[in-house]
Write a structure and sequence with these properties.
Elements: H1 3-19, E1 21-28, H2 33-46, E2 53-57, E3 60-67, E4 70-77, E5 82-88, H3 91-98, E6 103-106, E7 108-109, E8 112-113, H4 118-128, E9 134-136, E10 144-147, E11 156-163, E12 168-175, E13 178-185, E14 189-191
Keywords: Transcription, Transcription antitermination, Transcription regulation, Transcription termination
InterPro entries: KOW, NGN, NGN-like_dom, NGN_dom_sf, NusG-like, Rib_uL2_dom2, Transcrpt_antiterm_NusG, Translation_prot_SH3-like_sf
Function: Participates in transcription elongation, termination and antitermination.
């Protein structure tokens, strides 16, 4: 048999195998998503379920957090309290997942787990792969802030606009009896405690 014919024979089997693989959502105790993932991966290995449970994902995205004038990149859970599992649904695989410590239930109607649509899974995975992390700011438009760096250090003002893409904020500062907009980096302002 030629190499080409072998590939053609193997291809339909893998397509059939992929047809009954679906993504399901399991509900966990909040804050235990990563622990549930580790527990489930361990159970898949020890109970030899690799042929029925294929993938376990805790959907996260990178976010830049600004605290005390420092930028930190953190992993933020997209759906707190939920974990995605790619599996063939049958009594054995259901039992292994459902009885994993920290798992409270499958998401679905009644006792019947409902698989995610392919488009939903693609959207979640695409969101996880986004290159630029989002910047999380602790202030909002209309909020009072204090400038901590630059020529207007120690001035107070009101947030007029936030540009997440550029990491900039426009603050209305009052000096000489007039209000003037000043564009600053997120790191150059801090929220005033009210």
């Amino acid at each position: 048999m030629t190499e080409e014919k072998k590939e053609q024979e193997i291809q339909p089997e893998s397509e059939i195998r992929d047809d009954d693989r679906r993504w399901y959502v399991i509900h966990t105790y909040s804050g235990y998503e990563n622990k549930v993932k580790q527990n489930l991966l361990h159970r898949i290995e020890t109970m030899e379920m690799r042929d029925q449970i294929f993938n376990v994902i805790v959907p996260t995205e990178e976010e830049i957090e600004i605290k005390n004038g420092q930028r930190r990149t953190v992993q933020k859970k997209v759906f707190p309290g939920y974990v995605l599992v790619q599996m063939k649904m049958n009594d054995n695989s259901w039992y292994v997942v459902r009885n994993t410590p920290g798992v409270t239930s499958f998401v679905g109607h009644g006792n019947k787990p409902t698989p995610l649509e392919e488009e939903e899974v693609k959207a979640i995975l695409k969101q996880m792969e986004q290159e630029a992390p989002k910047v999380k700011v602790s202030y909002q438009v209309g909020q009072a802030v204090k400038i901590t760096d630059g020529p207007f250090t120690d001035f107070e003002g009101i947030v007029d606009a936030i540009d997440h893409e550029r990491g900039r904020v426009r603050v209305l500062v009052s000096f000489f009896g007039r209000e003037a907009p000043v564009e600053l980096d997120f790191l150059q302002v801090t929220r005033l405690v009210e």
